User: What shape does this take?
Amino acid sequence: MKAVTLQNVHFQYEEEGPAVLSGVSASIQHGEWIAVIGPNGSGKSTLSRLFNGLLLPRTGEIYINGKSIFSDDDLPVIRREVGMVFQNPDHQFVAPTVRDDIAFGMENAGVPREDMLQRIETVARQTGVEDILDKEPHRLSGGQKQRVAIAGVLALYPSIMVLDEATSMLDPNGKQEVLHTIRSLHASSDVTILSVTHQLHEALMADRVWYMENGRIIHDVTAEELLHNLDWLQEKNIPLPYAASLYQSLAHKGISSRSLESFLWREKSR
Amino acid sequence: MFEHVIIGQYLPGRSILHRMDARAKLASVFFLIAAIFLTNSWTGYAVLGGAAAVIYLSSGVPFRYIRKGMAPIFLLVLFTFFIHALFTREGDVLLSLGAFQFYEDGVIQGLFIALRLLLLVFLTSLLTLTTSPIELTDAMEQFLSPLNRFRFPAHDVAMMMSIAIRFIPTLMQETEKIIKAQTARGADFSKGSLKDRAQAFVALLVPLFVRSFKRAEDLAYAMEARGYNSGAERTKLRQLIWKTRDTAACVLIVVLVAALFLLRE
Ligand SMILES: Nc1ncnc2c1ncn2[C@@H]1O[C@H](COP(=O)(O)OP(=O)(O)O)[C@@H](O)[C@H]1O
Ligand SMILES: [Mg+2]
Assistant: This one.
């Protein structure tokens, strides 16, 4: 049995609206780490929200650990089995302190208090937030908040974890912290991971990479295959790191780094 | 500007009042407020004042925090006193100032009303100074939960309150960021005509609102993804623990209120 099976999934937000996903078929093995890359608006976030029924496909089927996403009886179980971490660290912190926030999902699932206390200890150690359990969200860094979000998800013993650009709003240190947490999770447990990212180097940490365009998975390759096809990456305009892409777009406009530099100096001395 | 925000006016501490169950404190304040409005004799107010002083002494809160809490209503107290003193024309004339005459009953009435307001704010300040907002919401949720039977969503209301409390500092930090960003673009929030300032304010409020709506949408997704289901039974990490001293305190308060009721004239 696969962890996730997508069969010819179609999705659009509005009845008459444009197709956002048009015929996505793919599957994920247990314990696999999939990275999803692709241009803005290609449907990555939409796809990730289908994994736990936050959105339901218009047509097609999705099975999570063999259970259909359309089954009303299974949906609460699926919600517990699929944990989600979103992009903005501040928009997913619900409770007044770290400890309460980690407990939020467990409270919803009706976990007894004794178990909660024990699980909080465990997941806090796993994500390295054991020293900040009593802190309030506005006293935490972005990286800490994202690790708290991961801890809150892990406390529900998920079998699948979906991270939608979970590192994109963090500073370099925060990114490192969160990536380290995901990597050690992947190494030490059999949680299946799906992470949406704009960073090529993050995608290359995964086992397999899906490249999406216009609501379809165009390429489904191992990280290794991706590395050996850098030409193809170039051709597909896969977002390069920010500095490099700025350089590139300036170059497209015929502005060399040298002329930009002398222009800026001139402006400054005016 | 906002780095040391204290939510509400909670002042963490280890006093007897701090360690009491929030439900006991909430119920006591409720009873005492009822007593404040029932009392109509000097003896009654003396007893209430004494009780308030004892409660204050058990809170360990420095007086300046209370003073700060009471300052905003001071004008209101003066205003209501004079309204009553001037317009209740019964009893002997105590003092005549031109067109204004102060009658005995009016002055007494005014003093009573002023005392009521002061005691009310004094007690509620003590409650919020010694009880964290989270505990207060939990206590309120429990008091409101019998209303669930009448389809009153006690839990959702408590969740709304606690989310609102949790986001106050975030909103403040964001306000600070937007002020800085708009100042960098030349907006000035402290100088200029009323019109200029109003305009600068719009430039602050619009992004604040837009971002809040986006946040509300994201937060709803995140809560749903973590299995939040309004109306469903949930367990709780936070516990309110009722001790013997909470029972004792409540009994004392009830006896006090009963005594005050007997002192009515
Ligand atoms: N809530 C929504 N309502 C309507 N259209 C949406 C909504 N969210 C996203 N879309 C549209 O769906 C398409 C895919 O968006 P999204 O899945 O967010 O892409 P990505 O995450 O790859 O940038 C975009 O064209 C976007 O405008
Ligand atoms: Mg997205």
